[in-house]
Specification:
The chain is mainly alpha-helical. The chain has 3 domains: 72 residues, no CATH class; 85 residues; 77 residues, no CATH class.
Amino acid sequence: MGSPFTMVLANIYMLEWEQKLIQHQKIHHGIYGRIKNTYRYIDDVFMTSNLVKEEILKLLDETTKTDSNIKITTTISQCLDYLDVTVENANGHLKTCIYHKSASEPYILPYSSDHPQHVHMIILNNALVRAARMCSTVEDFDMERLSTEMILLVNGYPPKFLQQHMKNFFLKCNAMNVWTDINSESYQQLHHELLYTPTRREQKVQLESNSTSLKTPTNYEHKDQIYLHYTFESGPLINFKKEYRQIWEKYYVYPGSRLRNTRLILGTLLNRTLQSLLTRKKPKRDILTKMETTTQAASRTVQQLLPH
């Protein structure tokens, strides 16, 4: 995997190699690792089959014979772990939940870190969305929610903060009875809605594929907006945004002011961590291009030292 092109070349080769398995699964109405229009994740493949174990192994052996360089490690079971999902065949119905590795630790961004509050809120929201997308039953989702809540509590998140933002999540999704009553029917609606909602990346790819018009240059002029960024700190500057807005409204948004209809947007910058300070960064391109070669530098030094 030394070259960036190695992964692309491997995917092209594997796509040709696995066509026999794909056609077999289509004929027998099976699943072949399809994840959002992809047949596999690099070299990990998930497939279902109604064949007996001996027939499955025979099929895989025949596929392997097409290229002796391809080695297959097979796991056949009613319940198995694929990537970060546990998939179980429960009487013909696939049941899924989040798979946690045994080596994983309950560590997450501490609440005491120098990060704005919306960062901590996003962590909780993303954990709930991930659980709702991957857990097929309300019981598994509720256990995952409780596990997330316990991990956040261990990392210093206030109970009031967690309760408030969990409530906001379920209110936004119109699924309060999933939280309060563990309602299975409402959860299935929530699960289906979030599971088939495209992510930002998928929306971007879809827009790019559907767009046929030429892109117009982006206009970055915001005549009615003012952007201000400041370094966030959890000490004396914890209320900086609130206090700055009070000053803004008092001295700049008075009746008749030219800035009355101007929107003030306050953004936050994070403090540099010790890792970023100690990590050796690559110099900027203009510095590298303006550097003299060793021969040129030596020649110039000799000319300066030698008397004219």
